[in-house]
Amino acid sequence: MKKSMVLALSCVMIFLNHAECQETSFNAEKAMHELQSTLSDNYAYLHDRERSAEALLAPHKTKLLASKTTKEFRDSAQAYLRTFADPHLNLGPYDEADHSVYPTGSDIFVQFEHDKLMIHDIKSGSDAHIKGLKPGMQVMSVDGQSIELAIKQVTGLTVNQLTQNQRNYAANIALGGKRNQARTLVVYHQGVDKAFNLAASYNSINALKNKAPLSVEVLGDISYVRFNNALGDLNTVDVFKREIKKLHSTKGIIIDLRNTPSGGNTGVAEPILGHFTDKQAIYQLYKVQSQGEPYEQSTMQSAQVTPQAPYLSQPFVVLAGRWTGSMGEGMVIGLNALGAKKVIGAPMADLLGGIKHVKLPYSDSWLEVGFERLYQTNGEYREDFEPHILLKSADIDGQGNDVARQQALAFLTNNIKAL
């Protein structure tokens, strides 16, 4: 009897092997059609990439259709979706062989400069920071692989098949390593190669779960509020309201959103934003992608905040950077709309849109997809926002300094009377 017949019969027996049964029933063509139609119906950024949706699919199509199991399909689909260069576009479930999700599973920000992969920023407090990695170093390899091979593992494509933006995005994912696994990087600096053995990129962000959702410091006349990746925790609202009692005696406020890579939700963000306005106010705009109605044809809608007591009337500045993600980005543009005197830092993580989760039964997967197109209050796309004082290194610079915080303190100290 043929193996396929044996497997099919075994599926009706009490001692069936789920993985083997799955192999006989999996249909790659249906799974790919389901993925593509879900993107078409739900993804507000589908036709807004550097290459068309069809061009992005083309080099992956053969491998997707050749998938024999749901795992093979998911692995190929993940590589395909990474070529969209959108951190909000993800497919799971994940396993330990998958790459860490960017930017939560990331502590080093890199960009190609004339074919050299250069460090631009290091996440404050991460193992990369503690071990001494700094902007200005050139990354030569990750986990014993060349950068070219690491990028191919992330995207399924060679470097020559990718745009500069796709290469940069893939390189940042590669440096985050595999899920919950330690990494080894070799960097070139001051004429020598040096190896750095780093903890799993998720370690520092996971450690925040046992810490307060935000911290407040009073620095003379300036108060400093730093959010600790907890914009999805409703407790953050209560902690903020309690902690801002310390702010009343100060003459200026720094709001630090550089450690929000995992984003959050409006149920946390809007009540906090409400303390920075004394009237109902719009903080961002959006359009919704829905089946049969592309987002371009949708009505522009507004997201608003309601005033919350106590009202913080002091002048304030906002810090943003490479690990400001999703709702963190929404809070930055919202605080800017509500009257921030300056936004200081680097371009943000560009997690595109408001997301929803869609089940994909044919591949036993789920898709996280941006179905809301988000805008600043001036009508410009959220992802196009850049800080007023733009820095290359928003967390840690080449000398190990937190320049963004230094500049914020200096700006408020020097301008409080004028503001």
Automatic annotation (TrEMBL):
Q: Where does the signal peptide begin and end?
A: 1-19
Q: Is Phosphoprotein among this UniProt entry's keywords?
A: no
Domain Tail specific protease intervals? 222-389
As one GO molecular function, the record gives: serine-type peptidase activity
Q: Cross-referenced Pfam families, in alphabetical order?
A: Peptidase_S41
Q: Which GO terms describe its biological process?
A: proteolysis
**Which UniProt key words apply to this protein?**
Hydrolase, Protease, Signal
Q: Is Signal one of the keywords?
A: yes
The protein's name in its UniProt record: Carboxyl-terminal protease
